[in-house]
Design a protein that fits this description.
alpha+beta; 3-stranded antiparallel beta sheet
């Protein structure tokens, strides 16, 4: 079973998609299986991360912003792919460092996420985007 999720972003940050994905998995009535999520972009990522304290998301964003600043920062002057703005090549670098796909077991019809885990699209660009995430749910044979 497959579906596509469209995630609207409004700049750099983490966008939780756990609720939408959980709802879709429940509708499929698969008791045991594996969910694969794949983001169809080269300037955004997928993460499983803590969903209890919003400071985790803001700290992650701040860390990666500091690790890979925009090309307008003098420390990034060696980069040549700057045609789409100062956030473009740094977004590609961040996406190369983080996952673009996730595998999550399904047990008893539910995602086997930990208590404080959520699924996020990590947007690396400044401008709003409509990000496409493909979900594939495979069921285990009984």
């Amino acid at each position: 079973m497959q579906t596509n999720f469209t995630i609207s972003t409004h700049g750099q940050g983490l966008y939780q998609v756990t609720r939408e994905v959980t709802r879709w998995v429940a509708e499929q009535a698969v008791q045991t299986g594996l969910l694969t999520l794949f983001i169809r972009h080269t300037s955004a990522s997928l993460l499983i991360q803590e969903n209890a304290d919003p400071e985790v998301q803001s700290d992650l964003r701040a860390y990666f912003q500091r690790l890979v600043p925009p090309t307008s920062d003098p420390s990034m002057s060696y980069l040549t792919h700057t045609y789409e703005g100062p956030d473009d090549m740094p977004a590609h670098i961040k996406a190369a460092m983080m996952p673009v796909s996730l595998s999550i077991p399904v047990s008893d019809g539910r995602l086997a996420l930990g208590t404080w885990q959520g699924i996020y699209v990590f947007e690396h660009r400044d401008a709003p985007h409509a990000r496409q995430v493909v979900a594939h749910l495979g069921s285990a044979a009984s």
